[in-house]
Amino acid sequence: MAGRGESLQSLRARGILHVDMDAFFVAVEQRERPELRGQLVIVGFPAERSVVLSASYEARAYGIRSAMPMAVAMRQCPGAVIVPPRHGLYYEVSRELMRIFADFTHLVEPLSVDEAFLDVSGAVRRLGPPEAIAAQTKARIRRELGITASVGVAATKFVAKIASARSKPDGLLVVRPEDTVAFLHALPVGALWGVGQKARESLARLGIHTVADLAHTPDSTLRRVLGSSGVHAKQLAWGIDPRPVTPVREEKSLGAEETFPVDVADDAVLHRELLRLAHRVAGRLRAAQLAAGTVALKLRYSDFSTLSRSHALSVPTDSAQQLYTAAKSLLASVGTRPLSVRLIGLRGERLERSDGAPRQLSLDRADDNWRTAEEALDRVAARFGPGTLRPARLLREWRGPAEGRPEAP
Amino acid sequence: MKFRVERDVLTEAVSWAARSLSPRPPVPVLAGLLLKAHDGVVSLSSFDYETSARLEIPAEIVQEGTILVSGRLLADICRSLPAAPVDVETDGTKVTLTCRRSSFHLATMPEGEYPALPELPPITGAVSGDAFAKAVAQVIIAASKDDTLPILTGVRMEIEHDLITLLATDRYRLAMRELPWSPANPSTSTAALVKAKTLNEVAKTLGGAGSLNVALAEDESHLIGFESGGRTTTSLLVDGDYPKIRSLFPDSTPIHAVVATQELVEAVRRVSLVAERNTPVRLAFTDGLVALDAGTGEDAQASEELEAKLTGEEITVAFNPHYLIEGLSVIETPFVRFSFTSAPKPAMITAQRELDGDDEVDYRYLVMPVRLPN
């Protein structure tokens, strides 16, 4: 593995993760039924005409593969425990998985229930280099879902996907941009997308067996053998894959909330928490290059009843100061609160891209000044860690003292 | 209480007074309209702690008295009555409205619980209702609609001797209008911050009817009152320090361009059809020409050219089309003048009667441009 430093810098240009669960259905079943751990497990219906949906790594050692006819699998691995699939449960876990991904970046492209591409370039300031984010993702999946994932990290989707496959199970493989070509060229030609069984045979007749072979074959030859996909395969062979990670659905909102250790009735405490949440949300908006057109406030009272209020801004913002101002006035619009507050949340909604977007200037230049200040905050946080530089009011973090707790009106 | 009044007179009076009723009254009695029959007139009042409205109409009073009824219901009933005299009579805790063969029995509310309406402060001066209405329409476009900045939802009214200056800004544009008036005291010098909504109502319902009296409280009541044709309204002023915004007008503008107002409004409307939310329309001024365009290369694009008389260097500026149209729409002269310092600085829009003349400076609309990505 290349050393840190310069290579990190180059990875920072674009950090793409391919996250793939290890034997997902089997892993979920083993989580639910711990006695299945370490066993030969096959998920599928034990019927002649059924196919294997998922197999444990132990079963794979017997040559069991997904989509293999169940009859064949049962013959090949007679000792295996056959578990009928519970799709409802897997979808449930999948939703939790996607929620974890969304916490790292809004650029998530799900490929199936258990794998997705994540473009984490925008989260580098907040969470560290892509490999660190990959490790955090793996750790959260293990901790919160009780299953394992393999993650490939690269500058392109194609290489990230190959890397995750080669790190299985429970692995993490980083392919740096400068190592990409060497990494690819060592692979058999079938590793390239679009090169299937038939294409492999045609290429083999020309003596093309590895990615390196294909990379050094003239375009005209490839076009003759593989048609229009030939040139595309050659681009992949040189690590060229400009396809962006395209979320199926753009993230619609971005927020943060805080449950108080002790319920709060004091406006000053709520305001301070809102200011901190505003900085958290604004920082994430800026990192993701988004701006919010609407600000929403969420309050949960001590009896768990919850209310939300939202306010449309005249100009979309990614500034903590503006989110804070709007949230504070939303809190005031609630009027007298019937109970003390258990949880407070701030959310930016109606998100739109802020990079490359025209920006309405203000007469007093206050927007620009706050923006400049908060961008400086981002740079300090990127260099010295989050929270090193804070608004003065947040210097002494509030820890609700049990005594002196304000009474609810 | 018992009186008879013509339907048209009653309907008009009730709907004017009911206008300032709050849809969510702070206390139930404030949903009511207070009717008081005395000395040959019926007076109607409404109040929501912030705004009050009062007027008197002539009526045949049979028996004097006071009642409080739901203003919204009364307004709806009056509008639907046939054109004939209306008899109003109390009957225990109810009030009966009879018009030809229709009759309505409404519940009354306890008038004893109705708060005292604020007094109209002493008259500060008088202004032409028509001129005032026009001036208000020109400045309120720039007032903020964002309640998170309460101060900016107000219009600043500065009174200096025989001149009223109205100012409004939402931080992205600024409108300033000066108009002459007749102060009660020639040396009057004062200022107030009035809700744009209130001023708009006053302009619509009290403007255009001859002279409009303005009454600004000198005491701690923080009230402004308006009176015209026997109708009185008072409103609480907006609290807070208004930013010093006059200094935002540029001292000198080396570049200016004159364009036909109506043609420009129409062109901006057309071109901005392709401008999605928050995307600007660009105006490129060159010698004799202004080229408008909007949209991006990826999506739809539109462009249009108009004649323009340019003095100074060529300049290209992008604006929020909505801000531009609002400003141009309140310019009544055939031509409009854009005055620039430089591209990222605010542009000033003023009215101009002739292509080669001077601009009129009693109304100035300052609009901040949009910065385009590099």
Core attributes:
heterodimer, A: 409 residues, alpha+beta, MutS, DNA mismatch repair protein, domain I, 5-stranded mixed beta sheet, 4-stranded antiparallel beta sheet, 16 helices, B: alpha+beta, DNA Polymerase III, Chain A, domain 2, 3 domains, 9-stranded antiparallel beta sheet, 6 helices, 28 strands
Characterize the structure shown.
With 409 residues, chain A is α+β, with helices and mostly antiparallel strands. In chain A, 40% of the residues lie in helices and 21% in strands. Among the domains of chain A are: 24-87, MutS, DNA mismatch repair protein, domain I (3-Layer(aba) Sandwich); 186-237, 5' to 3' exonuclease, C-terminal subdomain (DNA polymerase, domain 1); 253-394, Dna Ligase, domain 1 (2-Layer Sandwich). Chain A is built from 16 helices and 13 strands. In chain A, the strands form three sheets. A five-stranded mixed sheet of chain A has the order 5-6-1-7-8. The longest helix of chain A has 21 residues, at 267-287. Chain A is globular, with a radius of gyration of 26 Å. The model of chain A is unreliable at 1-12 and 398-409 (pLDDT under 50). By secondary structure, chain B is of the alpha+beta class. Chain B folds into three domains: 2-113, DNA Polymerase III, Chain A, domain 2 (Roll), CATH 3.10.150.10; 123-246, DNA Polymerase III, Chain A, domain 2, CATH 3.10.150.10; 249-367, Roll (DNA Polymerase III, Chain A, domain 2). Chain B has six helices and 28 strands. Chain B has helices at residues 7-18, 71-80, 129-140, 196-206, 261-271, 321-329; strands at 2-6, 32-38, 41-47, 51-58, 60-63, 65-70, 85-91, 94-99, 102-107, 125-128, 154-160, 163-169, 173-180, 182-183, 189-195, 211-216, 223-228, 231-236, 255-260, 281-286, 289-295, 301-307, 309-311, 315-319, 335-340, 347-352, 359-367, 370-371. In chain B, strands 6-2-3-4-18-17-16-10-14 form a nine-stranded antiparallel sheet. In chain B, strands 15-11-12-13-27-26-25-19-23 form a nine-stranded antiparallel sheet. A five-stranded antiparallel sheet of chain B has the order 5-1-7-8-9. In chain B, α5 runs antiparallel to α6 (321-329). The longest helix of chain B has 12 residues, at 7-18. The model of chain B has no long low-confidence stretch (mean pLDDT 92). Classes of the chains: A alpha+beta (409), B alpha+beta (374). The interface between A and B is medium-sized, with 24 and 29 residues. β13 (359-360) of chain A pairs antiparallel with β28 of chain B.
